[in-house]
Specification:
Rossmann fold; five-stranded parallel β-sheet; 8 helices; 5 strands; 57% helix; zinc; cytoplasm
């Protein structure tokens, strides 16, 4: 059992090591952070969406922005789009589950906002539909996926594709990337607070 546990830890470390060595991917992560900074500086919103574990990650990262990350500061407008269960079940029942995020983008998204879609496969139909709706509303998009990017690769403005095809390892790395972005954003927007720590 101990060797099994160690093998899983080693697999997770290996994915993060590949990420650390991929200078192009590191540059994309930095670019994503600066896009989010610009959205907040301009009074825009950062929206998140995902399914299953990725929905949990979306909610987690939205809370880091709207609550706090490392230090006390003003809240930032970030929201995970799945948190209203009555809305999700109504739209899934009356229309299609594929439409649950696209309709919210149409209702809440505005020019200058950004939608971060999280999908390990990159093939989540409801996120693809939301990205397509973003184009109409001039909402920018960032996709967090696994290595191939899936179908979302062709629909997003910025692709952060974790170098793995193993769902749990991808999810673990999504949270690492999300936390790095949150810290960059918080430090840049609230420098005086950061220095007071």
């Amino acid at each position: 059992m101990e060797s099994f546990i160690l093998s899983k830890i080693s697999e997770s470390i290996a994915v993060k090591s590949r990420l650390a060595k991929d200078r192009d991917l590191l540059e994309i992560i930095k670019k994503a952070a600066w896009q989010i900074i610009h959205v907040f500086q301009s009074g825009g919103k950062v929206l998140f969406c995902g399914n299953g574990g990725s929905a949990a990650d979306a909610q987690h990262l939205a809370a880091e922005f709207s609550g706090r990350f490392y230090f006390d500061r003003d809240p930032l407008f970030a929201e995970a789009l799945h948190v209203n269960s009555s809305y999700i079940t109504a739209v899934a029942n009356d229309y299609s589950y594929d439409e649950v995020y696209a309709r919210l983008v149409k209702a809440k998204g505005a020019k200058g906002d950004i939608l971060i879609g999280i999908s390990t496969s990159g093939n989540s139909k409801n996120i693809i539909r939301a990205f397509q709706e973003c184009k109409k509303s001039e909402v920018s998009t960032i996709a967090l996926t696994g290595s191939t990017g899936g179908q979302m690769k062709a629909e997003t403005d910025l692709l952060i594709n974790v170098p793995s095809t193993d769902t749990p390892r991808i999810q673990e790395t999504h949270i690492l990337i999300g936390h790095i972005i949150c810290e960059i954003v918080e430090r840049e927007l609230f420098k005086e607070k950061e220095y007071d720590r």
